Amino acid sequence: MNISIYLILFLSVVTAKLIVYSPSKLRKRINNQNGVIHSSVANFGHIPYGHSIIGRVWFDESNRDGCQSFRINITGEGDPDAYPSPIVLVERGNCSFVKKVRNVEHAGGSMAVIIDNKPGEIVEQVIMVDDGTGSGIKIPSMLISKKDGRKILDQFEECKEAEEDLDEDERGHKACVQLIGSFDLPHPDNRVEYDLWYSSEDEQAMDFLADFEEYHYRYKEHVYFTPRIFSFECKGCEEETLEKDCFSKGKYCAHSARARGALSGRDILTENLRQKCLHNKLQKNKKEKYWWAYIQYVHELCPDGITSSCSRKGMEEIEVKFEDIESCVGDSFSGGSRSSSENTILAKEAKEWKNNGPSFHPAVVINNEAYRGFLSADNVFEAICQGFKKHPSECKGVVGDSQDYNGISTEMMILIVVGILACNLVLLILYRRYYKQEMQNDVRMAAHSAVSQYFAIQNNDKEQMNLKAPGI
């Protein structure tokens, strides 16, 4: 194995990355020996944060788009490590991302890699979204560019040509391409900061918050949570829409996702501001648990949307004065009509979204890194555990558990690489000593041979002189 791949592994465990493991010539074609493939992780499935998947890549010529059941036998044969983790390559198009990845999972794949079908598209900016049926998928998937995908497919063609002289039963056993999927999170210290970008009308986000309360308190003082308000700008909207769904001349707008559409965008934005004000107040007073209790209450009490009266009841339930929170909401406007005046809270949130937002919502951001995968309490709890520099006891049983997927931890990967490097270094030192000793032996033997030949010549000359001497 080329030593450059060892360095790549150390440099690549910063966030989710896809790297060419072998062959070395493909690494050079992809990124000048670096081998890192530009990619985007899907926003569904189970992402094994803190771990890496190394596997042989499989490609089914008869099912290029992955929209049908795979006909080839996908196994762990040809994997470079002891953990069978086949990676399946498919092309984008003809069916949803979710269907492709589910077919890969059913065929035994540990990860799906999807080749984009749009030339020149920046894949890091493409979000592979859930089509509504991806909650049961247990493997990760990544999107790569059409250009890089073509290079991998060309490598498969070269391997196919190289096997033409082999017997039928000898073909396909050797891995043509091997990839590494690395899924790590930044872990600068022993406290994880995580945000949730959401809007109070989003049922998925509210379901998540309701489910995640118990998980949040498992971490105790080890985490810091910030709810983030999502809104969008619509300055070019019609006047009727601006009056109904926006504040500040269309700078901050919301639209209802409820089927009945009972709440206007302004109603939703107002509740978003109430939740933000409530959290700021309770977190400052070290009573954040009552914010979670409020979310639980209004989520159950108001299935069709959180109205002002519903919010009031929720505040009464946690013994917070509704008028105090309403005053905070009112004070966040600079004055005058809410239709035209600036809002300090929404302005701050909009700036944060512009600078550091994950570009999709609802979205969890962990240590400034956008979480990808199915938004469930279990998955996010596991991901947050990987964000600690030193894992707290609350994460016991989660960190390093590889029963749910085929792969190895990033820490184990580093240990393996360090071990291999150390072995290679020892072998190099031993070889150099052996080579030096052999050279010395050769020199001694050559010197000994030269001396022996010299004495043999001297003896021969003496014998000839004795034969010529008189009287003998």
UniProtKB/TrEMBL annotation:
This is Uncharacterized protein. The chain crosses the membrane at residues 412-431. Its main location: membrane. It is found in: Endomembrane system; Membrane. It is a single-pass membrane protein; Single-pass type I membrane protein. Residues 192-385 form the Vacuolar sorting receptor thioredoxin-like domain. It comes from the Eukaryota. The keyword Repeat applies. Keywords: Calcium, EGF-like domain, Glycoprotein, Membrane, Repeat, Signal, Transmembrane, Transmembrane helix. One of its GO terms (cellular component) is membrane. Residues 1-16 form the signal peptide. It comes from Euplotes crassus.
